[in-house]
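F.,

This is the one I mentioned.
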């Protein structure tokens, strides 16, 4: 773009025979294609997938990770109608999928349909927590390839891991659409998840948790496991009445081998929001027009919901500078993150 000379980013480097490391380097500024805008980033939020992709070396040398970001639109691609230069937007990108493109950088690209203009009442750091987690929640609940809940049904859904970032957005989006929410979390977060809309809250550490949930919701047909561990999927599936459905946040339905007999298992991949084929390791997802349209609808609605306080963003813990990414990754590995999201001020 005119006037810009560099794009400082945190790059994954994989020396021969060595584990991956993070390196701060200057890379090329990406150019927006049709329906894309170039964004000068001010904030990027950390997600578990960032750390998992780094630790497993999912994308190899030269990858730029980071998925959730906020910044100012500085250049428009062809056909863009929703934004103008100077707009502050929150965007989503699969950091690492395309070499040199990701959130841990000064400049990134946003799809104008899978992003939203940040309301004036919302801080940039709060807004950066919204795109990935809210889209994951929305798809898990309503995609035909996930739980496929009828939005007019008033059904009950169990959100396993309600105080996680994805869990909190799931509780809110389910409540907005008239669903009844049962959830699990640590005892210390009970009041938090209730304030977001959960009607019944249970301590996931309680040995009798599945039994108690069945008593509270005897006809339960839908579970979204936002944790995606073997223990969480197995226990959550035992709350279902009959042949219910469980959607896991883990790609490829990982860790669901021991779910209750008769459970229909699906997984949610937020990247089906983009109208293109995707692959992650051995797993492949074809382009989904339905998921793309579903997420386009979400991002059209979410600014108003955020502006009115109907949807509350995650609580950010702000770290200054991309130099802190390694520290933030370790905080996730150490299991210290609870009911907040790390956000880096670029």
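My design for it:
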């Amino acid at each position: 773009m005119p006037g810009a000379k560099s794009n400082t980013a945190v790059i994954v480097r994989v020396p021969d025979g060595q584990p991956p490391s993070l390196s701060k380097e200057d890379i090329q500024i990406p150019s927006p294609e049709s329906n894309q805008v170039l964004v000068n980033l001010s904030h990027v939020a950390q997600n578990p997938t960032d750390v998992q992709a780094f630790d497993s070396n999912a994308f190899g040398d030269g990858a730029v990770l980071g998925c959730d970001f906020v910044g100012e639109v500085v250049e428009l691609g062809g056909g863009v109608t929703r934004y103008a230069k100077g707009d502050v937007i929150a965007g989503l990108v699969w950091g690492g999928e395309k070499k040199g493109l990701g959130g841990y950088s000064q400049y990134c690209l946003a799809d104008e349909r899978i992003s939203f203009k940040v309301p004036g009442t919302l801080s940039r750091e709060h807004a950066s927590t919204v795109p990935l987690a809210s889209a994951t929640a929305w798809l898990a609940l309503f995609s035909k390839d996930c739980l496929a809940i009828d939005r007019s049904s008033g059904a009950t859904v169990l959100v396993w891991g309600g105080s996680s970032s994805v869990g909190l957005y799931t509780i809110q989006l389910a409540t907005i659409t008239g669903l009844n929410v049962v959830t699990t979390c640590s005892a210390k977060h009970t009041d938090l998840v209730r304030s977001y809309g959960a009607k019944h809250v249970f301590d996931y550490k309680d040995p009798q948790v599945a039994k108690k949930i069945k008593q509270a919701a005897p006809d339960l047909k839908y579970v979204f496991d936002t944790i995606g561990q073997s223990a969480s999927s197995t226990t959550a599936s035992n709350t279902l009445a009959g042949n219910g459905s469980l959607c896991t946040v883990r790609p490829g339905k990982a860790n669901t081998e021991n779910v209750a007999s008769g459970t229909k298992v699906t997984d949610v991949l937020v990247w089906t929001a983009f109208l293109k084929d995707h692959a992650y390791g051995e797993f492949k997802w074809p382009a989904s027009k339905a998921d793309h349209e579903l997420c386009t609808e979400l991002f059209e609605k979410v600014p108003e919901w955020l502006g009115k306080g109907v949807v509350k963003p995650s609580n950010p813990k702000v770290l200054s500078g991309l130099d802190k990414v390694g520290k933030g990754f370790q905080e996730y590995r150490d299991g210290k993150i609870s009911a907040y999201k790390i956000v880096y001020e670029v």
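The chain has a mean pLDDT of 95.

Talk soon.
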